[in-house]
Amino acid sequence: MKPSPWQQATYRHPYLFALLLLVVAFTANVLLQPNLLEPTTLNSNMRVFLPLILVAIGQAIVMIGGGIDISVGSIVSVVNAILATQIGLSGDLSAAGIMMGVALLVGMGAGALNGLFVAYLRLQPIITTFATSFIYAGLALFILPNPGGGVPSRLTAFYRETIILWLPLAFYIIALILLVWAGVRRTRYGRYLYAIGGKADAAYETGVPVRAVQFSTYVISGLMAALGGIAMTLLTGSGNAQVGDPLTLSSITAAVIGGTPLSGGAGGIAGPIIGSVTLGLIRNIISFANVATWWQTFVNAAIIVLALAMPGMINLLRRRNR
Amino acid sequence: MPPLLSVRNVAKRYGAVQALTDASLEVDVGETLALIGANGSGKSTLSKIINGVVAPDGGQLLLDGRAVRFESPHAAKDVGISTVFQELSLVPQMTVAENIWLTREPLQRSGLIDRRTERRRTEELLSLFAGTLRADLTPDTPVAALLPDERQIVEILKAISVNPRLLILDEATASLDSRQVQRLFELVGRWKAQGTAIIFISHRMTEIEQIADRYSVLRNGQTVGEGSMKDATASDLVTLMAPETVGGAFERRRLSPDDLATRQVVLQIDDLRTSVLRGVSLQVRKGELLGIGGLKGQGQRDLLLALFGGTSYSGRILLDGKLVHFTHPRQAMNHGVALVPGDRAGEGLLSIRSILENLLVPSWRAYGFPVRMKRARQHADAITVRLDLKMAGLDAPVSSLSGGNAQKVVIGKWLLRNPRVLLLDDPTKGVDIATKAEFYRLLTRLCDDGTTVILYSSDDEELIGLSDRVLVMHDGRIGSELTGALLTAANLVAASLGVVSGETL
Fold this sequence. Notes:
Strand content of chain A: under 5%
CATH architecture of the largest domain in chain B: 3-Layer(aba) Sandwich
CATH topology of the largest domain in chain B: Rossmann fold
Oligomer: heterodimer
Number of strands of chain A: 4
Distance between the termini of chain B: 45 Å
CATH topology of chain A: ABC transporter involved in vitamin B12 uptake, BtuC
């Protein structure tokens, strides 16, 4: 069977569907908020989107490798709790730097635990990371039982207000990550990642270190979640042990509409980035439309179900028409 | 000078099955050895021992005269033994080039993959098969978009890209067309001249005669003959391969052709085609037991699946003279067609549920809502008596039954629906002799009661003992039909390999 042009195009550019959605969401958003592209408005949007973007990138890498990470939201919460309690509103910058380093290590440690269970003990990824998410959520609540704490305003101002050459800080961070990813795609590690997600048995037979690569995807996801947690803390400037909760479903949604199949072996990180921005814009539209906030969750869930069902529905239609 | 590889007295047992008892072979540089044998003779086990997928229980592997032991396929690959697997080892989502060079990607000095070199080398490999492949097949084509023959060729290129000392071609020609096979043989000639040793496993006798220098024949896990192809004829090899028939377990009397001819045709198939089948036509009559034989993977399973609505097909199927086209197993079931799958654990039984539930799975609808449990139980009881099922009770889990009794449940659940046509997909695989005999009695009874049975079996003895006729499939077609006195083990083996000589057939 010859693949259709759309299939060929999405194989080469897995983010096409997300791009299409982005154009729609963007157009609707511009109609509601005509100054969207002015540097300050752009910045106020992008700084809100960045935490999800970072988390979704990690999620996508796990998914490319054939897994899934339900614990990313809780890792964000843990990092937020650590920073808000350990740095404090009047903390000095060097302490802040050290604590951020600690936060990154904690994120990678949490990811390593997930990876240990999934890759080496061969536990089912959804169940395992769902279970560990409660461990991390509990840890966050232990560190920060009640919302409070915070980080110095100098730090939050840096995150919130930095605009270089009309472009917000978030753009440069995204550009840097894309650059690193372009390099990774050209390494053997990049090939292995796609091979284990595509057909782990074949990869193993060919000599790919399947388990080590699987393990590494969870560590990367933990690291990205920790970066997302730092961004989230600098955005809100305060601590809340449940701040990461909504990010789990959103990150999976962003990865899926960004062309990363739940079955693994395909996709990239440009898709999830575009997907995250799209979700953010949809959230804007909903808040402009002045409807109850639970619509956000509804739309989020509806999009993921739709994106997952799409290939199946297309196949069903094809079989009917045959 | 010792030969490149010699295998000495290798044995291997899988559970209760002794796959190899005493297998030996030798292959030297620049030589093609054909490894041949009937179904279940141990060819693939032997090749898996050579390439490190399976560890032998006994015997020796000598490489360049030194004893070696491979812990994994890698270990074998590292010493230059490369295999073209039947089950493909390609990642569908990746491109042709990415698949061929996976784990051996050419690198630049910076450590990044040198995609230009990778592309060039892939093109060089693809050019080996130039003219037999689609023109738009490039190194960047994803493997998922390839046809089966093209995937097979990529698999061959992947195996040859390591410049192996020994190349094992395990049924590598099965999905190739004749031009591609010819090209492969030219290449084999070239690789041989460069000093590569080749072990060729194929079910096509003409191919073996064309490229093999020497042969080694396996029968029932034992090497029974080897020599130079020059000194052997196809019929010599067939004689070596044919297993001695033991007989005994069978008590079915064949229906005479005259008797059969008077019976009503239940099922007629005209020019059935699927992705595997290439035009199959046949007729089965009431109460007949039709055997389907041939080497594995010649389309037997597809034939049964097409009849059961499990795969799409073109062609005509007439059931009791009426044209039917099943697109779903349910439709086949409603017309009295039942399929007993070979993989009973995976497809035939809900192993943790009770015997009662397993028997009733296809028939719950007949008992209404809420289910008339008492009647269902009576019917199930009647079936277990008919099957002579040895069990603790209807409520015992199916997993508590022995293999043979579990297999009876798989058949029993269809008997509740009184099938007119029973399709059996290698039903006695891995079943001990006593249960086999019991199973044969059941089949005999069913046929006597007027059920039409189509039996695919990989066990030649079983086919000969049970069937009224055997159709031997070869490459998606019916190669030959064996009836009456012609239905012998030697003829079955010969027909499986596509050897047709005027005297025997």
